[in-house]
Specification:
The complex is a heterodimer of chains A (about 110) and B (about 110). Chain A is an all-beta fold. Chain A contains no helices and 11 strands. Chain B has about 110 residues and is mainly β. Chain B is globular. Classes of the chains: A mainly beta (about 110), B mainly beta (about 110). The interface of A and B includes residues 44 and 46 of A.
Chain lengths: ~110, ~110
């Protein structure tokens, strides 16, 4: 059972465009929602994270939008660059433990 | 700061064998978590170690075991390897006071033939 559902599986965006990746969850005990970026041959790297007490968090070109009532959150990458081409994972952590649940990943390709 | 390091980088084993993977956490981190990442999938939590004890475990069989040493480094052991154990094994470290801030290592790619 996939605790965090992520879409789309792959995404192709033109340079300068906006990349949007969506995630949904069911477990209301989740209280921390990070996004990770993974390049081939590397481990995931924390990109940005949010807690449910805010609806949006922005760091540079990366923004998380969080909808607590819909149990959905999304990553927006503004002014997408070829260097952003990577696999992105959303994740969630429960307030009852230390276990992270990851989405299935989105392969982003930014075309020059 | 070397960050999280893992060894070996790649490993090939045959079914039924046993394997040991190693992880050194980022400096100042005392908590180590292990994840299995199958090809094209997100990481799946195996277990977490703190103070040399397993704190939490994901949905993995007892063939998967671990250990944490006094210097916070950790090992993941997998017995009776199956073809389905082929994956990238990731180690992540964090300080106990900020466990959500996990830093991942580059992983060990295990191929079971």
């Amino acid at each position: 059972q996939q605790q965090v559902k992520q879409s789309p599986q792959s995404l192709i965006v033109q340079k300068g465009g906006i990349s949007i990746i969506n995630c949904a969850y069911e477990n209301t005990a989740f209280d921390y929602f990070p996004w990770y970026q993974q390049f081939p041959g590397k481990g995931p790297a924390l990109l940005i994270a949010i807690r449910p007490d805010v609806s949006e968090k922005k760091e540079g070109r990366f923004t998380i939008s969080f909808n607590k009532s819909a149990k959905q959150f999304s990553l927006h990458i503004m002014d997408s660059q070829p260097g952003d081409s990577a696999t992105y994972f959303c994740a969630a952590e429960s307030n009852t433990g230390n276990q992270f649940y990851f989405g299935t990943g989105t392969s982003l390709t930014v075309i020059p | 700061d070397a960050g999280v390091t893992q060894s070996p980088t790649h490993l090939i084993k045959t079914r039924g064998q046993q394997v040991t993977l190693r992880c050194s956490p980022k400096s100042g981190h005392d908590t180590v978590s292990w994840y299995q990442q199958a090809l094209g999938q997100g990481p799946q939590f195996i277990f977490q170690y703190y103070e040399e004890e397993e704190r939490q475990r994901g949905n993995f069989p007892d063939r998967f075991s671990g250990h944490q040493f006094p210097n916070y480094s950790s090992e993941l052991n997998v017995n009776a390897l199956l073809l389905g154990d082929s994956a990238l094994y990731l180690c992540a470290s964090s300080p106990l006071a900020a466990q959500e801030t996990q830093y991942f290592g580059p992983g060990t790619r295990l191929l079971v033939l």
